Automatic annotation (TrEMBL):
Gene3D superfamilies: Laminin. Pfam families: EGF_3. This is EGF-like domain-containing protein. Keywords: Disulfide bond, EGF-like domain, Signal. InterPro entries: EGF (IPR000742), EGF-like_Ca-bd_dom (IPR001881), EGF-type_Asp/Asn_hydroxyl_site (IPR000152), EGF_Ca-bd_CS (IPR018097), NELL2-like_EGF (IPR024731).
């Protein structure tokens, strides 16, 4: 939002002085607002609004916005079943402590990793609960406003855990999209779902670790909604 006020000379009316507002149409200047935003002139000021399908404050407008990134490290509004997610989210690149100096490829400081046990920076680096625990973690409801959901997912291993390690998108109580990581690699990779058919609907994300075997854990971070179909990997 613009907040500039252009005050002109004082004008006397009935023995009182009043400020005379000389409006400037700031929108005539190029790049007053961000790229992909519209400028609206107002008296004494102006307003920037992101175009339809873009998200931001009118100065920086992006095609994607974050739905869940776990940076508030608070799962109190999520539903946990079983024990796999008891120690989540995970702080920092906890996987680096292990053999091969594995890289989790998370964003920010916090992410979901059901092999890990480091739910705060004060817990020992490298803490782990292992593959044994099983369970699920279901998100609060969110509205699908873009055409694409993207996210980071890792762990799971073809031939050992498939399909018992997976992420699901639930709409109206039905699983409409799922992603099963199979690459036997803890480093999360970006995957996406085309959700054009569900625009405006309310949805939930469910993460599932129903495996106790080799690579029986899930890594997940950074669910975001995007306006455009940049690329996607439907089932
Ligand atoms: Ca103005
Ligand atoms: Ca994160
Ligand atoms: Ca497990």
């Amino acid at each position: 939002m613009g907040n500039e006020t252009n005050q002109g000379p004082k004008k006397m009316v009935n023995s009182h002085y009043y400020n005379v507002i000389l409006d400037i149409n700031e929108c005539r200047e190029e790049l007053r607002c961000g790229k992909d935003a519209a400028c609206t002139n107002t008296e004494g000021s102006f307003r920037c609004t992101c175009n339809i399908g873009y998200y931001g404050d009118g100065y920086i407008c992006t095609e994607c916005y974050t739905i869940f990134d776990f940076e508030d490290h608070d799962l109190s509004n999520w539903t946990l079943n079983g024990t796999a997610f008891n120690n989540q989210p995970t702080y920092g690149n906890n996987t680096l402590s292990r053999r091969g100096r594995a890289w989790s490829n998370h964003k920010g400081d916090w992410w979901i990793g059901t092999f890990e046990n480091r739910p705060s920076p004060s817990e020992p680096f490298g803490g782990q609960q292992g593959d044994g625990p099983q369970g699920s973690l279901t998100s609060p409801s969110f509205q699908i406003t873009g055409k694409l959901l993207t996210f980071l997912i890792g762990a799971g291993c073809r031939g050992y855990t498939s399909p018992n390690i997976r992420a699901e998108l639930i709409v109206d109580g039905v699983v409409v999209r799922k992603e099963t990581p199979t690459e036997c690699d803890g480093a999360m990779k970006e995957k996406s779902w085309n959700v054009t058919d569900y625009a405006g609907k309310h949805a939930q994300l469910r993460l599932i670790d129903y495996s106790s075997g080799f690579w029986g854990h899930i890594n997940f971070d950074h669910l975001q909604a995007c306006h455009k179909l940049i690329s996607y990997t439907d089932p």
